[in-house]
């Protein structure tokens, strides 16, 4: 049975902090629905009604396009151990890119990872919990270091030039292009 809440409780916050990964779902009025797994200590609860996550460059940028078009986003956490639980955050989000005013403040709570392209800030409309009894029990072996290593080996200026041509999502929605590199992601 599902339970709905208007805001995050202390118990929700503790559950979120204990999860090594989360899933992001977004969609525009038409086109594909995007679901992406995330990890790497990139999620933060800011207060009872606001959360954020740090986004690194990867395969696509559908979430940014969907939020610009529609704003809706769902974040899901699920326990892979006991007690079983699924927690969903329903809300509206915006992307803040490194060149945007306020980026440094929005990025401040996160680790200084290479390859950062934006911070997604989400106003939580509602929280839902459900049993999670159908989710398998698994243990975390370790975090993957591949994405951080990949970005850490790349020249950030060359990476920025390479992605500057990505102006559309896979469904043709417009994307804001990153034009600056976070101050911590430069090479000496």
Note down, in words, how this protein is organized.
Helices cover 20% and strands 32% of the residues. The protein is of the alpha+beta class. The longest helix has 9 residues, at 10-18. The model has no long low-confidence stretch (mean pLDDT 94).
Short description:
The protein has 188 residues and is an alpha+beta fold. The protein has helices at 10-18, 62-69, 103-107, 146-153, 156-163; strands spanning 3-5, 22-27, 33-38, 43-47, 50-56, 72-78, 86-96, 116-130.
Topology:
Layout: E1 3-5, H1 10-18, E2 22-27, E3 33-38, E4 43-47, E5 50-56, H2 62-69, E6 72-78, E7 86-96, H3 103-107, E8 116-130, H4 146-153, H5 156-163
Antiparallel strand pairs: 1-8, 2-3, 2-6, 4-5, 5-8, 6-7, 7-8
Q: Termini distance? A: 54 Å
Q: Count of DSSP E strands?
A: 8
Weakly predicted, low-confidence segments? none
Q: How would you sum up the global shape?
A: globular
Q: Helical stretch count?
A: 5
Helical/strand content category = alpha+beta
Quaternary state, please?
A: single chain
Order of helices and strands: EHEEEEHEEHEHH
Helix content: 10-25%
Radius of gyration: 17 Å
Q: How many strands, which pairing sense, and closed or not: the largest β-sheet?
A: 8 strands, antiparallel
Write down the overall mean pLDDT.
Answer: 94
Strand percentage, roughly? 25-35%
């Amino acid at each position: 049975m599902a339970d709905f809440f208007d805001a995050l409780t202390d118990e929700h916050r503790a559950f979120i902090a204990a999860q090594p990964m989360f899933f992001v779902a977004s969609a525009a009025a038409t086109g594909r629905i995007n679901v992406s797994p995330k990890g790497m200590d990139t999620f933060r609860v800011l207060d009872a009604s606001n959360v954020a996550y740090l986004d690194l460059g990867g395969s696509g940028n559908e979430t940014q396009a969907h939020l610009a078009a529609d704003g809706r986003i769902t974040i899901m956490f699920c326990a892979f151990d006991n007690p079983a639980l699924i927690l969903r955050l329903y809300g509206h989000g915006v992307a803040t890119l490194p060149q945007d005013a306020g980026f440094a403040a929005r990025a401040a709570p996160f680790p200084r990872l290479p390859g950062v392209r934006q911070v997604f800030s989400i106003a939580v409309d509602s929280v839902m919990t459900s049993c999670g009894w159908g989710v398998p029990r698994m243990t975390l072996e370790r975090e993957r270091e591949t994405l951080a290593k990949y970005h850490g080996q790349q020249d950030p200026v060359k990476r920025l030039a390479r992605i500057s041509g990505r102006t559309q999502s896979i469904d043709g929605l417009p994307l804001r292009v990153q034009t600056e590199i976070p101050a911590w992601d430069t090479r000496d």
